[in-house]
């Protein structure tokens, strides 16, 4: 059996506020396979985005164990966490403009993303793969919201990561644009890149090869 990409065991995440400690995630355990689409599903406030930040090595967990490809990441220092993010992890945010450099062209965004991960440039065929051919010289502002989000996944792919983490990637899109983004997600997973998406979109949940359902910071169930 293939080793999971991530292993979470008894994970807790607490945040300190002026009024005291607030538990965001409590005693969460699950695995993320090294391929396919894992969906963290649940309503707002269920802990989805918090777990994505833990998986992305942005936030530290308070207790429990998080392993990435068998390595316990809990004790990694700032430099090692940053290097791991650069080499292995790409992130797509909820709002399309937050993923891109607005004053650059489409091609420049792809190149910048590739180079930020130590790659020379993005695959020249990536725009065809994204369904936005011929847009390389366009400014980001000339793209629709759905096209921008597809470009965001293209920028993620240009980094050649082991995993793409996506936070509510369809929530700000109309139904037609969301369907195109879901198609890109499916093809991204088919290419061998693991995808972890936090979402309450039933259409995204439906394409998940593994679904972890969350409520009030706890796992309510899993399906594969």
TrEMBL record:
GO terms for molecular function: ATP binding; ATP hydrolysis activity; transmembrane transporter activity. Residues 8-224 form the ABC transporter domain. It holds the Pfam family ABC_tran. The keyword Iron does not apply. SUPFAM superfamilies: P-loop containing nucleoside triphosphate hydrolases. Keywords: ATP-binding, Nucleotide-binding. InterPro entries: AAA+_ATPase, ABC_transporter-like_ATP-bd, ABC_transporter-like_CS, ABC_transpr_LolD-like, P-loop_NTPase. It comes from the Bacteria. One of its GO terms (cellular component) is plasma membrane. This is Putative ABC transport system ATP-binding protein. It comes from Actinokineospora auranticolor.
